[in-house]
Design brief:
The chain is α+β, with helices and mostly antiparallel strands. It is 46% helix and 13% strand.
Length: 109
Amino acid sequence: MRARPPTDDLDDEPDTVAFGIAALDARLDRSDLSFPADAATIRESVGDVSVPFDASGGTMTVGEALDEVSTTQFDNEQAFLNALHPVFETAREKNRAGIVGRLRSFVPF
C-alpha cells in the first residue's frame, strides 16, 4: 500500500510513502535474495530489515513477519509477498488507532 505524505508545496512531484508489501518489495529489489528460497535463507538475507506496515511509521522486521506465517518455502517473490501480506494487514489493523488512540490512552477517563 502507499499513502501520500503531507506536502510542503515546494515541488511539483507527488511523493508517496510505501508500506506493507509495497515497502517490502522495494527492499527486496535492493537485496541479493533470489527465489526459490526458504524461510531460513530469507532470514539470513533480509531478516533484520525493518518494513513499515502503516503510513504512521509502525514497523516490523522481515524476521518478525516470517514468525507469523506457517509457510517455510517460497517458489517466487510473489508467493513470498502474498504470504506476508496478511501479516502486515493485521499489524496495520492493530495499530489503526494511531496518534489519536495514543493521545486517548493518556486521558484518565
